[in-house]
C-alpha cells in the first residue's frame, strides 16, 4: 500500500488561522440572489423575502465573510439603483451576464441578509464604468454615522445604524478584456490608488483590495501586479487572486493536483508583492485576498455560452449551475488545504460562489435547497480550523501528472488550538485506486505519552454503491457527505490512519 508520513511540532506554526479565509461570494448573476438567497414568494421566506432554509444552510456551511455584489456584474452597476423604496427602483441591463436586473435586492437587503447569516460583508466598488466619486458616495452612504446628505439618505431609507463595512474591493478583474470598462495595468493602478486614497480619507479604518490578475494564465500575469502595486502600494492592503479548476479531457490526475498550481500561484504573488515593497523601500506587507476560487467547468460554460448566445434579455436566467461530484469535493478539500497552508499571507479568501452559481448550496424556486458535495470539506474546515496553522514536514509517495508534474499522493494541512489542546488534521489521498497508509508523529505534542483521544475521524470518499462521479441532487441530496473514517488509531505517539482512495478526511485529536 502506498504510504505517507507527517511530523509536526506545535513550535512550528505559520501564525493564527485567519478566519476570513473561509469566505464566500454572492454576485448578481444567474440565480445566486434571486431564487437563491432572496425569493419573497417562497413558503420559507421571511418578511424581507430572505429564504430561511438557505440561511440555515449558509450558517451550517459557516462562511465568515461574503463578497458582494460582483464579480463582473459590479463593473457596470450603479449602487444607487439598489437602495430606497423597492417599487421605485429602476430595471437595468446587466451587461456582464446579459440579464435584466430588477434591483429588488440591493445594499440594504444584503446587509440584512448578512446579519441573519452571521457573515461579515465585503463590498466591491465599480471601477469599470465609474470612478472615485461614486466609490466615495457608496462609502459615505454605508459607513458614515449621519448628518451628511448620503448618510442621512441611508437613515431615511430605514437603516439608522451605519453598515460599518471594513473590507472593500477596488473593482473586479479589470485586466480581463471581457470586463466592462477593462483597463491597462497603468490605467487601473492609477485609478485604484486615487480611489483608495480618497476612500481612506472618508474612513481610515477600512481595508482595501486591489485587483490582481483574473487568473495566472493571463498574458499580463506578473507584470499587472507589479504595475498596479507600484501605483497603489501605499493605499491598499491586499492584492487579489482568482483561480478556477476543472477536470479537462479526462485528465483526472492533473485535476487532483490542482492545489499544487494554487500553491505556486500564491507563492508567485507573494514574491511579486514583496519585490515591489523592496523596490519602493516600503516595509508595509501586502497580503493576499484569494477572493474567487473553486472548481468550475468553464469549458462547458464556453460551449453553451448563455451570456453571448442568448438574444433576449431575461431576469435571473440559470447560469453555470454546476453539479459537483466526489472528485470535485476532494479537489475543493485540497484547495482549502492550500489556502490554510498559506494562511500567513492569504488572509482573506472567498469561494465563488455561495448559492446556485458554481456553489456549495443549491435551491429551487418554491421548493427545496440542498448541499452539494463541495459543501462538506468547506463546512468541516470552516468549523474546525482554529488556533494556529502548523507547518508540516510531509513525506509522501507520489505520481506523475501531465499538467503539474510530480504530485504527492498526500495533501494535508493542520491546526493546533493551544487553548483547547486540539489538533485537527485535514488530509486528502489523491490516489484513485489504493488506500494511503498515513503515519503522523505526534510526540512533540504529547511528551507525556497520553496519546490523545480521537475526537472525530470523518472522510468524504467514493461509497461502495457509488463512483467518483456520484453527486447530490434534489432527489438524492445526501448521496455524498462525511462518513466515519475507520482504521484510525493512536499508539505510542503515532497516529495511524488508512485514507481511502480518492478521499478528503478530517481527524480531530484531543490532548486534554
Ligand atoms: O464567479 C463568476 C465570475 O468569474 C465572476 O463574476 C468573475 O469575477 C469571474 O470571472
CATH homologous superfamily of the largest domain, by name?
Glycosidases
Q: What's the shape?
A: globular
CATH architecture of the largest domain: Alpha-Beta Barrel
Mean pLDDT figure: 96
Q: Report low-confidence residues grouped into runs of 5 or more.
A: none
State the secondary-structure class: alpha/beta
CATH class (first level) name of the largest domain: Alpha Beta
Helix count, DSSP H or I runs of 4 or more residues: 12
- The helical percent reads 25-40%
Radius of gyration: 23 Å
Largest sheet: 8 strands, parallel, barrel
Structural commentary:
The structure is a single chain. The protein has 512 residues and is of the alpha/beta class. The protein has 2 domains: 3-10 and 389-510, Golgi alpha-mannosidase II (Immunoglobulin-like, Sandwich); 18-126 and 165-174 and 204-384, Glycosidases (TIM Barrel, Alpha-Beta Barrel). Helix content is 26%, strand content 26%. The chain contains 12 helices and 27 strands. Strands 3-4-7-8-9-10-11-13 form an 8-stranded parallel beta barrel, surrounded by 6 helices. Strands 2-16-20-21-27-23-24 form a 7-stranded antiparallel beta sheet, with helices on one face. Helix 8 runs parallel beside helix 11. The longest helix is centred in the middle third of the chain and has 23 residues, at 258-280. The chain is globular, with a radius of gyration of 23 Å. The mean pLDDT is 96.
Amino acid at each position: 500500500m502506498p504510504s505517507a508520513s507527517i511530523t509536526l511540532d506545535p513550535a512550528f506554526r505559520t501564525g493564527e488561522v485567519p478566519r476570513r479565509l473561509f469566505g464566500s461570494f454572492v454576485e448578481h448573476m444567474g440565480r445566486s440572489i434571486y431564487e437563491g438567497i432572496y425569493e419573497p414568494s417562497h413558503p420559507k421566506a421571511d418578511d424581507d423575502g430572505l429564504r430561511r432554509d438557505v440561511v440555515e444552510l449558509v450558517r451550517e456551511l459557516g462562511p465568515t465573510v461574503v463578497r458582494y455584489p460582483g464579480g463582473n456584474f459590479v463593473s457596470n452597476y450603479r449602487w444607487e439603483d439598489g437602495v430606497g423604496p423597492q417599487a421605485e427602483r429602476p430595471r437595468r441591463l446587466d451587461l456582464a451576464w446579459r440579464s435584466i436586473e430588477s434591483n429588488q435586492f440591493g445594499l440594504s437587503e444584503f446587509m440584512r441578509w448578512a446579519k441573519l447569516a452571521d457573515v461579515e460583508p465585503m463590498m466591491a466598488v465599480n471601477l469599470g464604468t465609474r470612478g472615485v466619486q461614486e466609490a466615495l458616495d457608496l462609502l459615505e452612504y454605508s459607513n458614515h454615522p449621519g448628518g451628511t446628505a448620503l448618510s442621512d439618505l441611508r437613515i431615511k431609507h430605514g437603516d439608522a445604524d451605519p453598515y460599518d463595512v471594513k473590507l472593500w474591493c477596488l473593482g473586479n478583474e479589470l485586466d480581463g478584456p471581457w470586463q466592462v470598462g477593462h483597463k491597462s495595468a497603468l490605467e487601473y493602478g492609477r485609478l485604484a490608488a486615487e480611489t483608495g486614497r480618497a476612500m481612506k480619507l472618508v474612513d481610515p479604518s477600512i481595508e482595501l483590495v486591489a485587483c490582481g490578475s483574473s487568473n495566472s494564465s493571463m498574458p499580463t500575469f506578473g507584470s499587472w501586479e507589479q504595475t498596479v502595486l507600484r501605483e497603489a502600494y501605499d493605499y491598499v492592503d491586499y492584492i487579489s487572486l482568482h483561480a478556477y479548476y476543472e477536470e479537462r479531457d479526462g485528465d483526472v490526475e492533473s485535476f487532483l493536483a490542482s492545489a499544487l498550481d494554487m500553491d505556486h500561484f500564491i507563492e508567485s504573488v507573494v514574491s511579486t508583492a514583496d519585490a515591489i515593497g523592496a523596490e519602493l523601500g516600503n516595509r508595509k506587507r501586502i497580503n493576499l485576498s484569494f477572493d474567487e476560487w473553486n472548481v468550475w467547468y468553464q469549458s462547458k460554460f464556453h460551449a453553451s455560452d448563455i451570456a453571448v448566445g442568448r438574444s433576449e434579455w431575461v431576469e435571473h436566467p440559470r447560469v453555470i449551475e454546476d453539479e459537483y461530484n466526489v472528485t470535485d469535493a476532494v479537489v475543493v478539500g485540497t484547495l482549502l488545504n492550500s489556502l490554510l497552508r498559506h494562511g500567513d499571507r492569504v488572509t482573506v479568501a472567498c469561494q465563488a460562489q455561495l448559492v446556485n452559481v458554481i456553489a456549495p448550496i443549491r435551491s429551487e424556486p418554491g421548493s427545496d435547497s440542498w448541499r452539494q458535495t463541495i459543501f462538506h470539506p468547506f463546512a468541516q474546515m470552516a468549523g474546525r480550523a482554529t488556533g494556529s496553522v502548523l507547518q508540516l514536514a510531509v513525506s509522501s509517495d507520489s505520481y506523475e501528472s501531465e499538467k503539474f508534474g510530480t504530485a504527492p499522493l498526500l495533501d494535508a494541512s493542520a491546526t493546533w488550538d493551544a487553548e483547547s489542546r486540539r489538533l485537527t488534521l485535514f488530509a486528502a489521498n489523491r490516489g484513485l485506486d489504493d488506500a494511503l497508509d498515513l503515519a503522523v508523529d505526534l510526540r512533540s505534542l504529547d511528551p507525556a505519552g497520553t496519546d490523545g483521544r480521537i475526537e472525530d475521524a470523518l472522510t468524504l470518499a467514493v461509497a461502495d454503491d457509488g463512483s467518483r462521479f456520484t453527486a447530490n441532487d434534489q432527489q438524492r441530496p445526501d448521496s455524498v457527505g462525511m462518513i466515519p473514517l475507520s482504521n484510525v488509531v493512536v499508539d505510542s505517539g503515532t497516529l495511524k490512519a488508512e485514507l481511502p482512495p480518492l478521499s478528503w478526511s478530517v481527524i480531530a485529536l484531543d490532548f486534554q
